[in-house]
Every structure is written in structure tokens, then in C-alpha cells.
Write a structure and sequence with these properties.
- This is XRE family transcriptional regulator.
- One of its GO terms (molecular function) is DNA binding.
- The protein has 14 helices and no strands.
- It is mainly alpha-helical and 243 residues long.
- It folds into three domains: 64 residues, 434 Repressor (Amino-terminal Domain); 59 residues, 434 Repressor (Amino-terminal Domain) (Orthogonal Bundle); 84 residues.
- The chain is flat, with a radius of gyration of 21 Å.
């Protein structure tokens, strides 16, 4: 978790992950609620924990810390995927100063990057960022301000000869080319299924056209789904960015 003298927000609480950790330990709601109450020095009814796991209520940072202590895990195990540079730092458990030093930049420059959620580092600093904070690909692309460019490339890739787009996408997404290639191929196949239905009956064609339009609107989200399916622990490309 983040340093005590330099707090930063973790990603949002993930109910399913919290429930999975508790069940894996074989603990009841009552047992965990008791442990949280002991940690915080104030009562907590099991129904509150049940509401957290159901997504009906969202625990604050202090309760997430207490829940992690009760479940013998890190708060990072109970939250979702980081979507900002600040959240990536919190997940890595580093202070602003530690991060700036690791990336070879000033304290002020890293603070500005977090505040704006914009990354403008050199090639060496970018490699250090990927190695130190391991931002999720979607987070990194957004911080670089290239989500729109990526969407354009993906839409062209699925509707034409996708191999031509492996290199352009690889210059934006910090993942191995092989992984990007497999993801683009799958996206292309899915989109071509919609295209193949356009010559069917009017009702089927209209439905396929609507599905194709929705697919293209959310094309970057579909890419991240394919990437996660291909490799849950996809490491950054060590050669990114290309010299």
C-alpha cells in the first residue's frame, strides 16, 4: 500500500475480490466483522460486510485497510484495476519522492503528472515507469493521451487487413507484439461475424449493424478484454518505447 506519510487513493473497492479472499480463507462474515471491529476499536455488524461484498455499500479507505488486516492480505488485493498514475503509485506502495527518484525526474514533475494524469517522460523514463509502477495498458495509454488514436487504429484494423496494424498499435500499447497480434486477430474475427450477417434478412441485418456499431464504439475496451483473456499477467514489452 502507499506510504503512510504520502497517502494516495487506491483504485475503487472490488466486492468480488474481497468476497473471494474471505471464502478462500474459510471465514464467515461474522468472523471477519469481529476482526475488523477489533482492528478499529469500534463495532461492525456482519450485515455491513455483506453489503460491501454485494456492492450495495462501499467501504472507505480506513475500512479497506481494516478489512485487509482481517483477511491477512494487502489492500491492493481488495481493489480493482488502477486507472490513473496516482492509483498506480498507490498500488506500488511508493511515495511521490520514491517514484520521482526511480523515474529520474523531479518531485514537482511527477506531482504534475499525477495531478493532470498525463505522462510526458523520455523513452528511458517511460521504461522506468513501466518497470516501477507496471500501469495497466489502458491506464498507460490514457495517461499518454493516445486513447483516441488507438481507437482509430483498432477500427481500421478490424475492418481491413489486421496484420498491417500490429506495428502501429505496438507503438502505443506497451505489450509484446505477439500478444497484440493475437488480440487484433480475435477482434477482426468478431467484427467480421457482424459484417457477414449484413446480407441476411432485414431484421438480422439491422441487429448485426447495431452490434457492429456498438463494437466499434467500445473497440478499445474489447482490446483490453482480449489482452486479459490472453494473459492475466502480461508483462510490459521490455523494448517499449522503440528507440
Amino acid at each position: 500500500m502507499s506510504s503512510a506519510d504520502d497517502p494516495s487513493p487506491l483504485p475503487p473497492f472490488h466486492p468480488a475480490r474481497a468476497a473471494a479472499v474471505r471464502r478462500r480463507l474459510g471465514l464467515t462474515l461474522g468472523q471477519v466483522a469481529w476482526a475488523i471491529a477489533a482492528y478499529r476499536g469500534e463495532p461492525l455488524h456482519p450485515s455491513a460486510l455483506e453489503a460491501w461484498e454485494a456492492g450495495a455499500l462501499v467501504p472507505d479507505a480506513a475500512h479497506i485497510q481494516a478489512l485487509a488486516a482481517a483477511l491477512w492480505c494487502s489492500p491492493v488485493d481488495l481493489v480493482g484495476e488502477a486507472t490513473t498514475l496516482a492509483q498506480c503509485r498507490a498500488v506500488a506502495g511508493l511515495s511521490v519522492g520514491q517514484t520521482a527518484a526511480a523515474l529520474g525526474m523531479t518531485h514537482a514533475r511527477w506531482e504534475e503528472a499525477e495531478r493532470r494524469n498525463r505522462w510526458r517522460g523520455t523513452a528511458d523514463q517511460t521504461r522506468a515507469l513501466l518497470h516501477t509502477l507496471r500501469p495497466p495498458p489502458a491506464c498507460f495509454v490514457a495517461a499518454c493521451g493516445r486513447t483516441g488514436q488507438l481507437r482509430v487504429l483498432l477500427r481500421e484494423a478490424v475492418s481491413s487487413w489486421w496484420p498491417n496494424y500490429v506495428s502501429p498499435v505496438s507503438r502505443i500499447v506497451p505489450l509484446p507484439r505477439e500478444l497484440i497480434s493475437r488480440a487484433l486477430e480475435q477482434l477482426h474475427l468478431i467484427y467480421q461475424q457482424f459484417e457477414g450477417s449484413l446480407g441476411a434478412s432485414p431484421r438480422v441485418a439491422a441487429a448485426a449493424e447495431a452490434q457492429a456499431a456498438d463494437f466499434l464504439d467500445r473497440i478499445d475496451l474489447h482490446l483490453w478484454q482480449q489482452v486479459r483473456a490472453a494473459s492475466r499477467q502480461a508483462a510490459p514489452d521490455p523494448d517499449f518505447p522503440a528507440s
